[in-house]
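example protein:
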Amino acid sequence: MPWTKEQQKVIDQRDADILVSAAAGSGKTAVLVERIIQKITDEEHPLDVDRLLVVTFTKAAAGEMRERIAAALDKKVQESPQNQHFVRQLSLIHKTQITTIHSFCMSLIRDYFYVLGIDPNIAPGEEGQLSLMREQILDEILEEAYEKRDPEFIELVESYSPGRNDKELGQYILNLYEKARSHVQPEAWLQDARENLQVETLEDLEKSPMVKMIWKDASGIFENALAILKEALETAEAEGGPYFYLKQLKQDEEILNGFAEAESFGECCQLFETFEKPRLNGRRKKTDVIDPKLQERCKGLRNHAYNLVEEMRGAYFYLSMGDILRELKIVRRPLEALIGLTEEFMERYSQRKIRENLMDYDDMEHFALRLLIDHWDENDNPVPSQIALEKSMDFEEIYIDEYQDSNFIQDAILRSVSREAEDGHNMFMVGDVKQSIYSFRLARPELFLEKYHRYQGPEKEYQLIELRNNFRSRREVLQFTNDIFYQIMHESLGNIEYTKEAALVPTMEFPESSGMTAEILLIDQEEVSQSEENALALEARMIAGKIKEMVDGEDPLMVTGEDEQGNRVLRNVCYKDIVILLRSMKGKAEVFQKELMDAGIPAFCDNQTGYFDTVEIRTLLSLLSVVDNVYQDIDLAAVLRSPIIGMTEEDLGWLKIKGKSEHLYGCLTAVQDQMPLAKKALNYLEHLREEKTCLPLNELIWLALDESGYFYYAGSMPQGKKRQGNILMLIEQAKAFENNQVKGLFHFVRYMKQRREYNMDFGEASVLGEDQDLVRISSIHKSKGLEYPVVFVSNLHKRFNQQDSSGKIIFHPDYFVGADMIDPVHRIRRTTILKSMICRQMKKEALGEELRVLYVAMTRAKEKLILTGIKTKEIDWNRKKEISYIDLLESNSYYDWISKALVHVPTEDFQLQIYHLEDFAWQQEKEEIERQLDKQIFLARIAGEEESRQEEIRRLRETFAYQYVNQAETRGQLKYSVSEIKRMSQTADEEEETMFPAREPEKRIPKFISQEKKISAVSRGTAVHKVFELLDLGRTYSYGELDEQIRLWISQGAIGEEYDKVIWRKDILAFLESDLGKRVRKAASQKKVWKEKQFVMGVPFSEMSEDEESSSYVVVQGIIDLYFEEEDGLVLVDYKTDRIKDQDSSILVRRYKVQLDYYRRALEQMTGKKVKECYIYSVFLKEALVL
């Protein structure tokens, strides 16, 4: 296909800085490669390929670019094998700087490390390692700050860091640090943040940048409110409209005009001091014929206008200017303390990284900037260094891909190595601001926008070229996408006006195929609320039905493919042609995958978590822990029980009994001659322990895998390839860890445990092949740059995430820091105007990004686009007004935008289908009917077989009709504890509490000194039971003797030290001195007391499951606290620590009667003696209750 006029201009344009605004699917990569090839093979001025700098967003994109250029050069060499210049370029391609920005920065650092004064072996740190380093530094800084007790710091802590630890305060420091580091001069930015708070007088306030931004925002809202009120006036003047409201509406117009025409923030504050919303007056005549819908619409519009005014009052004009100034002075002191802590953190973190020879990606950019920028002039423009000037001579042209995702630092780096300082123009930037969706990576789309507007000027040195022709998608996809974004993407919110000049132009010819119109599938919200099913599951089920219809239906969807000769032909759609795109994967992708799999549709989604929970990784980490320290009993037990050694539970029990050692390793040593598996384990571990001193970590893991065969065992398990992939990821992590200064098995094991503790998961390995026929479930961000024949954009109703603007302190890269005004003494919290302004700006920017995310999602589709979600609001098909800025700003989901836009979309461009619960029921019935039909057809077919095969058919029928004789047992448990039976037997008993009342709220303690663990109710009860178990029940105790005895047990480790204060001595003595206690003491003196007696007994299965008939038995196990023998029988005692409301002992009797009945049965079976009495001893009530 020949190049378009615009594409040819991109290829041919010379001697200018060029910005290419390349829409989705416009072939920008192909054009970029062609331009490079043309420059290299230019007959008059041929260029060596290594004189180019090509910067891409990802390593994969860099690799693809290099391959494409190499392929094009190879083709040129084949066409002209005698051309030595072409041959030379092919040899130079491998040293050409086709790279990511961070790789380019890294090459600069390697070349000029001595200028920076850093070690030449400095390397990028692993994120988990750096995160732990940040935590340690935060702890150090905060500990020192607590010791100094500066008033500003104490104010910061008391106002903004509630609770028992300072985790929230640490997060504030990290957030502010991150915003500062996104700027070319982070230290200067923090100083600017400090100066932004220095507002001393009302005049300072009126002139401050903050108030200028506030006034710009408020003026826009007042103008929109006035426009809405004018619409209400038009409604009142219309035929059948509520004309009697006109007088009041005109007064309202005057009021809103006052706000809109106010000349300053102070003037507006004064207007709000006397402002009250007037009541809507007006009476209709009896003879009037008024349309009630118009009347309600008029009232609604008026309310909407005034709501906007009230919103501005709540955000900016809630106090007089003097009071606002006082508020800002109150928050200044703690925020200055926060800035000071951040500066200290920045300094120490930088020093620690240098000391440990590590850096992060921010460091790479800042190091490169230090090398390339000599200083900043009076206008804050960078002045290139000598290194930058030398580097600029190396590059004839600089190509920047995905320029809309660059940040200020990256832009400064690349500009410094261009010819800009010498008035040269050799920058080539390509991107699409409509696809800038990486604000969380601190991308600054305004860089692209500034050049987009500036390059439209008359200067020949600056050229804007727009590529709008789309070579990816069908006309139906592009037409619907254009229709939607004409309505919702405007400069006021999306930073660019989506007009005919910016719209996508269908260019690629596709074979004719029916059913390609864009579809919107919605489930009615009211029906979702009536259903017992989860809304997400219903949406997934709706999608599953649509996929089955497209793939296996009577009229399957036909998409474009290629025949053996490479001709474009239609073929049936496959599962692998389909992708489901979600804004957020967490908690949703798994639901979609399950519903699709249940419907018989193979589906795949990338898991971002779960790595540390996989059995193979848990096993190997336990093994490494044991190789490091053989006395890690829990880890050693896991290794022994795993397939690596292969012991059973019985083997472990025998090992512990026969070994008679405190630690499992000692038991292994003791029984190695009697137990072959113990000998195997010892030999295996000893070999690994010997080799750990000389082998690198990754080779040590391979040795462990080779000797045990565990790698192949994992591969034979379900999802074996994924499990082997997880193991390979562990080996790669070990290899990367060895490159750090801190080495060794101990540190690696500790590092992996800390990663798990801090929830720094790697995500499970992906083993998905491109040719596997299954539906992909992906996030929209991961789909960027990709294309799929059929795209579902799902979960449209999901509310936008506004969490970043919800904290007590919020941060913005341009507007610095905003905070609530908090008075901890009077417990007052109020949002300041500074925070309100930042909140509103963050919301606007977030909504602008959401628009761009939706654009990316919809432009992934090649042939069929389907939008799905819940219909949360009715669509107003009678609405004629265009979508306003306020309409966009007040929307909370993609559905809100699309439902408003659909009104203005030609009906032939989309199909809307609303699903009801009956549709899902019919879908299930239809599938069941089809299954039954298939069965009948099969049976009819085999019924007609020859007589000779009838016996074989009869045996098949009997085989498939077989019923398992113990089917009932498969539906129930086969092993119970007595506690489980107790829970099963009791109805909802809401009065159950522990005997220990809730503790009073503790004062907040800093995290670095707060190591005390909260003791659970269960643990407290266990501690009390342990005391009863250890007590010599045959003697008496005084309070002092009992206290001394308990402290002795604690010192010996029999009871944990943390339980000391919850073991109430008086309660123990109360039992010993009770009538029951005295009977126990008498029996103990005759050696007729037994404690902690374990039992296992069989109970008929039907007793556990009344609905099932079976002659089998289930196992019931438990532990009897205490029983003793008297002349006429046994007495059973069970201690209970429950706290009973209203001292009602009958609750305990009711609660534990079933449990004690099983104890009685078990004891009588074990001893063959009659249990004459059963007691519950309530420690809380200090009373023995007889059952």
Q: What stands out?
A: The first strand starts at residue 17 and ends at 22. The longest helix spans residues 321-355.
